[in-house]
């Protein structure tokens, strides 16, 4: 039976770092990489279901139960914490009040830094996915809490996760035309978050995060074809048709529409950045597309 760490025992521990959504795809990677940098008892994994964090607890990480929609639980979860990483909620349509609750709890706890995983080019983005990040950023700025905005670009896994089907059908589908995606892996973005949480000089900074080597979906298809020695092309669809195709593959309608909208945004340059903020933060080049494709095809 998992035993939650008593919050009272952590009083006085210095430099405690809390990560929300710590059992999610990104949050888990962030905690794992933090463990390479700081003692486990200085890491607080904020989770909705503590049972899913048992492996972290066994490593000595403090596991605290809290939900984005439970403000009272957040106040307790941030007790004694110096830095908070707010991993954006996955509940599209409900994220603004949830993020505001986390911000309020962080302010009440007197944290010295609130880092937030936002979206690339958030201040100018017209993507559907940006509509909840923009008011969140504004709320955090107005709160007075020292912040860092980690404006994450598209995940490479958003493309490589469906490569088996692309190989089977001989086509990568999309609605991005020849737009370039500056993608990076979740592990790359996790490393950037860890660099901010464990480093200095990041207060009130905004980082536009993306991969070093942007690519088009035609280039993605060509790389898949090269590695598999099979014919794979890029088939560009109208946005509405692509959304219907994604829904036909089993994606919820809202998510299908958001992905198709993101592809359309990519055709306008909204998922591209030449900032190299990501590679500078992590101190290495971002994961090459060839490596990500190879890893996906080997599974």
From TrEMBL:
Top-level taxon in the UniProt lineage: Bacteria
Gene3D superfamilies in UniProt: NAD(P)-binding Rossmann-like Domain, UDP-galactose 4-epimerase, domain 1
InterPro entries to which the protein is assigned, alphabetical: NAD(P)-bd_dom_sf, NmrA-like, NmrA-type_oxidoreductase
Domain called NmrA-like: residue spans: 15-261
Transmembrane segments: none
SUPFAM superfamilies to which the protein is assigned, alphabetical: NAD(P)-binding Rossmann-fold domains
Protein name: NADPH:quinone oxidoreductase 2
Origin species: Acidisarcina polymorpha
């Amino acid at each position: 039976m998992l035993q939650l760490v008593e919050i009272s025992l952590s009083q006085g521990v210095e430099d405690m770092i809390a990560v929300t959504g710590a059992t999610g795809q990104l949050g888990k990677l962030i905690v794992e990489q933090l463990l390479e940098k700081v003692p486990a008892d200085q890491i607080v994994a904020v989770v909705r279901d503590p049972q899913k964090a048992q492996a972290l607890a066994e490593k000595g990480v403090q596991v605290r139960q809290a939900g984005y929609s439970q403000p009272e639980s957040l106040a307790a979860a941030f007790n004694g914490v110096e830095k908070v990483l707010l991993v954006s909620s996955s509940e599209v349509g409900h994220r603004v009040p949830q993020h505001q609750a986390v911000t309020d709890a962080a302010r009440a706890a007197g944290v010295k830094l609130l880092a937030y995983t936002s979206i690339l080019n958030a201040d100018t983005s017209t993507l559907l996915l940006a509509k909840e990040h923009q008011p969140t950023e504004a709320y955090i700025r107005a709160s007075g809490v020292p912040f860092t905005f980690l404006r994450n670009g598209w995940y490479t896994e958003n493309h490589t996760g469906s490569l088996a089907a692309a190989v089977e059908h001989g086509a990568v589908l999309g609605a991005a035309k020849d737009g370039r995606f500056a993608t990076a892996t979740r592990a790359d973005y996790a490393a950037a978050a860890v660099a901010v949480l464990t480093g200095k000089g990041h207060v009130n900074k905004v980082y536009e995060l993306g991969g070093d080597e942007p690519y088009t979906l035609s280039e993605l298809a060509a790389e898949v074809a090269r590695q598999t020695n099979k014919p794979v092309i890029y088939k560009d669809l109208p946005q509405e048709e692509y959304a219907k195709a994604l829904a036909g593959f089993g994606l919820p309608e809202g998510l299908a529409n958001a992905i198709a909208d993101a592809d359309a945004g990519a055709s306008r340059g909204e998922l591209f950045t030449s900032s190299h903020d990501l590679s500078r933060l992590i101190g290495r080049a971002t994961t090459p597309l060839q490596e990500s494709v190879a890893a996906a095809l080997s599974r």
